[in-house]
């Protein structure tokens, strides 16, 4: 590698890190990063991203669900595209890399091509998906599902924790809930979908490797549970007569943890949100809602585990005389990455002088939705301590550089199937 190229690539990484920090400053408040679907902060972030896309030589627009979409034409205008993407929404109290790194790195690669006046035999599109995390409404991958044409209109009626429906939130954001179909793309428009993302786990770090080739994205099931008992006076209702929804939920949550812990094969289960009503010190809780997130390396394993957990929760509710309502709010199958894309990513990693290593993704990604209209490939970048969905999420500049170089090489050497 010549000295000139090394200098240029180092600045590519620095620019990416600067932008990751710039985007992280757009937050719903407090000193931690939170930027969920259809908020004014998400809107502000989309404007910044669209500006970066235009600066990089792309035409750019906000699509019908709020995805930031940029297009860099190839040698012939109107050619099918290699789509690069990731999400720019975050979880609550998030790290700044999960999601935006993939969008910003893709834009940086296009900017580099544009500076060199280089056009490819295909177009490049970069998408910043507006909702991957699914933390505001019950469903997830809403940005990529809209592009894949699999957006389920029934989620428009779901409400966030403040009671705002997705339909109203879309209108407030400046979008038309009745025209989300306009975001959909056809399979023939895409040559492939590629995503660069932090690993969000400890495997690459343990192996002392900056980069990995993703083999598959693990499936996930999300459920919403509601237990209804009987609210009452904390001083007068005898313990034996109580129908306490919160102690019932506590027993369910402990059972889920115990069940997943005793599984030998990487089953994970999480209750990440709980709300007790009416919610007062001196009132026996009459109603409790909580979420369940379950994942396993294979779909069969996950489905069996979900069925077992549901049976246990039903039994606990029955024994405690609580009414149970349990809904599956989200179900995603395990998505394999395409072997031909894995090969091209591995070749680029090797050509940049790194060892190639394959690993699965335990976290969800937009590729889970994009698989319906394109083959999917993913590059993982090492993160510190495997920490993610936490403010301490961190990626080293050298690894950002390495990832950007590899992505650029994949793009420049890309051979459609
Ligand atoms: C989002 O990051 C998820 O994997 O649920
Ligand atoms: Mn992510
Ligand atoms: Mn995430
Ligand atoms: Mn994710």
UniProtKB/TrEMBL annotation:
Which keywords has UniProt assigned to this entry?
Answer: Hydrolase, Manganese, Metal-binding, Zinc
Q: Name one Pfam family in it.
A: Peptidase_M20
Concerning SUPFAM superfamilies, the annotation shows:
Bacterial exopeptidase dimerisation domain, Zn-dependent exopeptidases
Q: Name one GO molecular function term.
A: hydrolase activity, acting on carbon-nitrogen (but not peptide) bonds, in linear amidines
Cofactor mode of binding and number, as noted = Binds 2 Zn(2+) ions per subunit.
Coiled coil residues, start to end: none
Binding-site list for allantoate = 222, 282, 295
Residue limits of the Peptidase M20 dimerisation domain?
219-318
Task: Detail which positions bind Zn(2+) 2.
Answer: 98, 133, 389
State where Zn(2+) 1 binds: 87, 98, 197
Which cofactors are named for this entry?
Mn(2+); Zn(2+)
- NCBIfam families per UniProt: hydantase, PRK09290.1-5, PRK09290.2-5
* Family statement: Belongs to the peptidase M20 family.
Q: How does it assemble?
A: Homodimer.
UniProt name for this protein: Allantoate amidohydrolase
Organism of origin? Bradyrhizobium guangzhouense
């Amino acid at each position: 590698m010549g000295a000139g190229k090394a200098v240029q690539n180092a600045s590519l990484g620095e620019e990416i890190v600067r932008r990751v920090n710039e985007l992280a400053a757009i937050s719903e408040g407090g000193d931690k990063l939170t930027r969920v679907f259809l908020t004014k902060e998400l809107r502000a972030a989309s404007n910044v991203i669209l500006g970066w896309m235009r600066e990089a030589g792309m035409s750019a627009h906000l699509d019908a669900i709020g995805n930031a979409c940029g297009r860099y034409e190839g040698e012939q205008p109107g050619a099918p595209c290699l789509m690069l993407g990731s999400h720019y929404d975050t979880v609550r109290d998030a790290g700044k890399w999960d999601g935006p790194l993939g969008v910003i790195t893709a834009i940086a690669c296009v900017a580099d091509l544009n500076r060199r006046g280089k056009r490819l035999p295909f177009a490049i599109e970069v998408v910043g998906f507006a909702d991957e995390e699914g933390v505001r409404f019950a469903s997830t991958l809403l940005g990529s599902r809209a592009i894949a044409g699999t957006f389920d209109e029934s989620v428009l009626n779901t409400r966030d924790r403040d009671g705002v429906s997705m339909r109203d939130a879309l209108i407030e954001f400046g979008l038309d809930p009745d025209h989300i179909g306009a975001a959909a793309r056809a399979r023939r428009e895409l040559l492939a979908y590629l995503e660069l993302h932090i690993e969000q786990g400890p495997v690459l770090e343990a192996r002392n490797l900056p980069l990995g080739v993703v083999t598959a994205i693990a499936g996930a099931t999300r459920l919403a549970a509601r237990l209804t008992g009987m609210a009452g006076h904390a001083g007068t209702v005898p313990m034996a007569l109580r129908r306490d929804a919160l102690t019932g939920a506590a027993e369910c949550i402990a059972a889920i943890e115990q069940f997943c812990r005793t599984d030998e094969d990487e089953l994970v289960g999480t209750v990440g949100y709980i709300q007790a009503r009416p919610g007062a010190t001196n009132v026996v809780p009459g109603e409790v809602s909580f979420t369940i997130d379950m994942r396993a390396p294979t779909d069969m394993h996950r489905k069996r585990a979900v069925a077992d957990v549901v049976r246990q929760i039903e039994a606990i509710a029955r024994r405690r005389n609580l009414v149970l309502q349990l809904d599956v709010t989200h179900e995603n199958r395990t998505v394999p990455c395409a072997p031909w894309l894995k090969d091209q990513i591995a070749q680029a990693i090797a050509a940049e002088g790194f060892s190639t290593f394959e690993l699965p993704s335990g976290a969800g990604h937009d590729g889970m939705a994009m698989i319906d209209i394109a083959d999917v490939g993913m590059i993982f970048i090492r993160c510190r301590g495997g920490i993610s969905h936490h403010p301490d999420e961190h990626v080293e500049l050298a690894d950002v550089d390495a990832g950007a170089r590899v992505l650029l090489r994949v793009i420049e050497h890309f051979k459609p199937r």
